[in-house]
């Protein structure tokens, strides 16, 4: 018997996968935004609030904007070396 898939966990996993690439790939950014309801509200760790589709687009465009002197760092869940394991 196949194990049941929890749609919430599947969506959360996809969110994190897309978060690794959405800053460099518009299609992944669009898919990431599609994971949210049209009237979603997001609060950042700094307390900034983004509302609705346009608010979320603006938030993630700013979030993924390259920062001078800051390199992306993605750790893998398995034993593959990532850029953070130097």
What does it look like?
- There is one protein chain.
- This protein is mainly alpha-helical and 86 residues long.
- Helix content is 41%, strand content 7%.
- The protein has a two-stranded antiparallel ribbon.
- It is globular and about 30 Å long.
- The relative contact order is 0.11.
Estimate what percentage of residues fall within beta strands. 5-15%
Q: Which structural class matches the secondary elements?
A: mainly alpha
How is the biggest beta sheet arranged?
A: 2 strands, antiparallel
- Percent helix range: 40-55%
- Biggest sheet: strand arrangement: 1-2
Which stretches are poorly predicted, pLDDT < 50 over at least 5 residues? Answer: none
Shape: globular
Mean pLDDT: 82
Compute the number of helices.
3
What is the string of helix and strand elements? Answer: HHEEH
- Gyration radius over CA: 15 Å
InterPro entries: NTF2-like_dom_sf
């Amino acid at each position: 018997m196949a194990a049941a898939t929890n749609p919430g966990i599947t969506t959360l996993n996809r969110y994190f996968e897309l978060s690794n690439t959405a800053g460099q790939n518009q299609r992944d950014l669009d898919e990431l935004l599609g994971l949210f309801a049209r009237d979603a509200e997001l609060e950042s760790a700094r307390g900034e609030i983004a509302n609705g589709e346009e608010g979320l687009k603006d938030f993630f465009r700013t979030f993924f904007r390259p920062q001078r002197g800051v390199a992306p760092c993605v750790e893998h869940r398995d034993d593959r070396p990532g850029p953070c394991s130097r």
